[in-house]
């Protein structure tokens, strides 16, 4: 059986490259000792074949085979357009 691939939801922060967007994914995690809720941000380069994502769009990305040196995700769908 095939393993489940990671699916993440984030906001496009850059669309300057050809067929590539940078997606910032924000997650929350509780500190193990103090219990404070921490907001963690991570940026992923994702493949956008049709060049249809714009800055501010909320997108879903999925883990894929390596496309280039830093790209290991691909845009699945645009959930919400930027205003």
Number of strands: 5
Radius of gyration: 14 Å
User: Helix/strand-derived class?
Assistant: mainly beta
Strand content: over 45%
- Ranges where pLDDT stays below 50 over 5 or more residues in a row are none
Provide tags for this entry.
five-stranded mixed barrel, globular
Summarize the structure in words:
The protein starts with 6 loop residues before the first strand and ends with a strand. The protein is 0% helix and 53% strand. It is mainly beta and 83 residues long. The relative contact order is 0.29. The protein contains no helices and five strands. It has a five-stranded mixed beta barrel. The chain has strands spanning 7-14, 20-30, 37-47, 58-63, 73-80.
Summarize this entry quickly.
This protein is mostly beta strands and 83 residues long. It is built from no helices and five strands.
Topology:
Layout: E1 7-14, E2 20-30, E3 37-47, E4 58-63, E5 73-80
Parallel strand pairs: 3-5
Antiparallel strand pairs: 1-2, 1-4, 2-3, 4-5
């Amino acid at each position: 059986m095939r393993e489940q691939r990671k699916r993440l939801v984030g906001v496009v922060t850059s669309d300057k490259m050809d067929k590539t967007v940078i997606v910032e994914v924000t997650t929350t995690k509780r500190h193990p000792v103090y219990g404070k809720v921490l907001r963690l941000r991570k940026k992923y380069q994702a493949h956008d074949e049709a060049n249809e994502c714009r800055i501010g769009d909320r997108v879903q990305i999925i883990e894929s085979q390596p496309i280039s040196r830093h790209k290991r995700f691909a845009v699945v769908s645009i959930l919400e357009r930027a205003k």
